[in-house]
Amino acid sequence: MNSTPPPRPRSSVLGRGSYTEALRIGEILRKETVGGILLVAAAVIALIWANSPASESYFALRDLPVGYEPWHLELTLGAWAADGLLAIFFFLVGLELKREFVAGDLRQFSRSVVPIAAAVGGVAVPAVIYALVNLGSPDTLRGWAIPTATDIAFAVAVLAIIGSHLPSALRIFLLTLAVVDDLLAITIIAVFYSSDLAVVPLLLALLPLAAYTVLAQRHRRFFGTTPAAAWFILLPLGMATWALVHASGIHATVAGVLLGFAIPVIRSQASGGPAAGPGLSEIFEHRFRPISAGIAVPVFAFFSAGVAVGGWDGLLSAVTDPVAIGIIVALVLGKPIGILGTTWLVTKLTRASLDRSLKWIDVFGVSLLAGIGFTVSLLVAELSFGQGSIHDDHAKVGILAASLLAALLASSVLVTRNRRYRAAAEEEAVDADQDGIPDVYEQDERL
Fold first, then answer.
1. Counting beta carbons within 10 angstroms of the beta carbon of residue 222, is it exposed (0 to 12), middle (13 to 18) or buried (19 or more)?
2. Could you count the other beta carbons within 10 Å of the beta carbon of residue 221?
3. What is the pTM of this model?
4. What is the pLDDT of residues 100-134, one digit of tens each?
5. DSSP string across 75-90
6. Lowest mean pLDDT among 85-89, 102-106, 203-207
């Protein structure tokens, strides 16, 4: 009689996760889809206006100064969009990342290691490719971080246009990738793109940030179960933190991430009883997500994407600039190489296998989609070269061209899998026992 124990089943990566997480991610992506469509529309309007006979009015509007100079807050409308409105976007990035690692599926190392490693690979490989292309030019080498980010809003807008029923596992993977590499991008901005650091405003920023953190963490004790009171205190503290960080020379969007990290993502209990009502993170998510997706990011895209190409000769000059070449190659090739290659390497090192519901072509399609590096890439381009400079204009052309090419390539791959995705979506909707949880999620939990 053979007493050899049966081999242990190999662990899998990129599984469905929990049903709660799938619902939450699905809701976020539905909001981002609308935002992505508005973003694309704003960018197209900006491009048309900037290359029309009325182009001077576009640039005059973008460069119109607004604000109070004694507080160092007299900025152009374009700068307000980049420094102010994008802080709301990065606030949600910080909030989402904290939720994922504190209360979401990614608090488990087995689930977080793949998307985090893939995000790091998706940042490192494009940066190296851009640097290699621009190695001989110190002036253009400064833009090495431009192709590191993924624009989740643009990406899900592409999915909506092609009608892809991307499985929940891939949707979670894509969102996690985008959030983690946005965090890496803001870290790069804070470390490499901050100039003329003023220590006093930076130290002063710690005071409202500390007060904001304490009040947010103990909001039920200070404000009870009525969230309206929290708004009148936390919002001014957050704005003061933003203003002081901006005055310190560190890019003000960094304040958005810090403020997002300060919000508690686990519901607190009132008077020792059960948690009453939605938590502060859920309230802020509900209030700020539509503002970010529907206003902040599209307005930034409108003021940032407008570049005067200058006809065919100007376009040819732009796309042959090493800046644009480096961005296009890094986003279109570097992103999928970094993401797919790192994911494959992690499975080999951990002796895991891809979840049985997916194939490597699915990961490849999502990796191509991650090459859409629109919003944060435009921001880093402006920080690298200065808004309106020749390299900034060429970088914008490269970002637009690369994002469009990545969207087309990803669509061509994912469309071929649509029939399989549609079948998976129907399977994930079956709830035979009518307990409110689809059967496949219950089966996954039992495995």
1. middle
2. 11
3. 0.85
4. 778 776 777 777 788 889 999 999 999 999 999 99
5. EEHHHIIIIIIHHHHH
6. 102-106
- Cβ burial, residue 128 (10 Å; 0-12/13-18/19+): middle
The count of residues in the chain is 447
Structure tokens at 10: 């190999």
Q: Are 215 and 259 in contact (CB under 8 A)?
A: no
Residues 410 and 158 sit within 8 Å (Cβ to Cβ): yes
Could you tell me which of 277, 287, 273, 297 has the C-alpha nearest to residue 378?
297
**For residues 241 and 156, what is the distance between their CA atoms, to the nearest angstrom?**
32
Question: Domain 22-194+251-266+279-424 is classified in which CATH homologous superfamily?
Answer: Na+/H+ antiporter like domain (1.20.1530.10)
Please state, in angstroms and rounded to a whole number, the distance separating the CA atoms of residues 85 and 105: 29
DSSP code at position 44: H
**Residue 240 near residue 204 (C-beta atoms within 8 A):** no
Question: What residue segments make up the domains of the chain, in order of their start?
Answer: 22-194+251-266+279-424
Residues 386-403 as b/e (b if ≥16 CB within 10 A, e otherwise) read: ebeeebbbbbbbbbbbbb
